[in-house]
Amino acid sequence: MSEVRHDPVTGRQVIIAQDRANRPHAFVSDPPLLDDGDCPFCVGRESNTPRAIAEYAPPRPSAAEPWWIRVVPNKYPAVRELNGVAAASPTCTSTAKVNEIDRRRINGHAFFTAEAALGSHEVIIESPRHVVSVTELDESVMRTLFHVYRDRLTSLRTAGQLAYAMAFKNVRPAAGASLAHSHSQLLATPFVPPQVELELSHSQAYFADHGQCVFCELLRSECRGGVRIVAESANFVAWCPFASRCPYEVWIAPKQHACRYESTDSARLDELAALVQQLVGRLEAVHPQAAYNYLLHTAPINESRELPYYHWHIELLPRLIKFAGFEWGSGCYINPIPPETAAEQLRA
Predict the structure, then answer these.
(1) Residue 229 forms beta bridges with which residues?
(2) Is residue 153 one of the residues assigned to a domain?
(3) Which residues of 27-60 are buried (b: 16+ CB within 10 A; e: fewer)?
(4) What is the pLDDT of residues 148-192, one digit of tens each?
(5) Tell me, what's the pLDDT at 207?
(6) In total, how many domains does the chain have?
(7) Any long-range contacts for 26-29 (C-beta under 8 Å, 24+ apart)?
(8) How many CA atoms lie within 13 Å of 233's alpha carbon, on the beta-carbon side?
(9) Domain assignment present for 175
């Protein structure tokens, strides 16, 4: 039987329609990206990318492994760097601020407005070797990757010119990847994106009404019930949300309240990296070659206060189904796999 579920964090409505999993071709298959033998992210082809913003080297660099992770400006950025200078650089001298970005009228009409898309768009190349999945990364490299996210967010916060920065990962074509080589991106904007704003506003309203962080309450409830818990470590919990938007959606959050990812200490980041690597491995065991996105939601980088109502988290979103007319027209998702079933399969 189908049912409408309400997400406690955003108020979003999702239809859980289990019978739709029996439709022909209910799940999409994603053919792998074809490698042309000239991947710009592989070792020895560093000149094919813009000059590195940062490099993270192994303890004993070699010709085959001179670096573990490279951070480079995106060659095809979605936003323009402030005054042509990387906003992530601590030495950035641009005086443009988020609140100084002027809107302009289109053809003199106040109904249509626009402003310059200023920001920062980085690519985080996760291995000198041509690997596709984070499950292929050495544990030490995976740990370093989650330290890189912290470093880049901290750098953007220090620059003090933008409002929000999101680290995210697209894997395989159905999830938006244009290159197979394992990489993440970090995109910073002069505004807080609508989806994050929705989380912030609903969380703040819940805190005003109940005096509690909605995420903390949610974690306590999920851990008591256990049916949607996928995995747990000393400091983190992974679960399939009650109102999951797509099959096998997983959220990962710290057990202890924290609004800002970049405040997480190194030991906890190492623990988180191992958990995320494990979760991706479980997803790929259930659905080999699954396309997915994961993304990091954290407090805005232009917010200096500690937010007692917001909780940073990672969302893992497998791309096993296609959103069609109803989803686009209504903003309401239809999920054919109940999260309880998904969690049970991911635990196996």
Answers:
(1) 239
(2) yes
(3) beebeeeeeeeeeebbbeebeebeeebbebebee
(4) 999 999 999 998 889 999 999 999 999 999 999 999 999 999 999
(5) 98
(6) 1
(7) 26/321, 26/336, 27/247, 27/287, 27/320, 27/321, 28/174, 28/319, 28/320, 28/321, 28/322, 29/289
(8) 19
(9) yes
CATH number at residue 53: 3.30.428.10
Residue 102 within any structural domain of the chain: no
∠ CA 23-24-28, nearest 5°, is: 100
What does the pLDDT look like over 23-75, one tens digit per residue?
555 566 666 665 657 899 999 999 999 999 999 999 999 999 999 999 999 99
Asked if the structure places residue 95 within a domain, the reply is: no
The whole domain housing 165 covers 3-81+115-347
Provide the token pair at 76.
């095809």
- For the whole prediction, is pTM greater than 0.85? yes
Q: How many CB atoms lie within 10 A of CB 117?
A: 14
Question: Is the dihedral angle over the CA atoms 323, 125, 288, 277 positive or is it negative?
Answer: negative
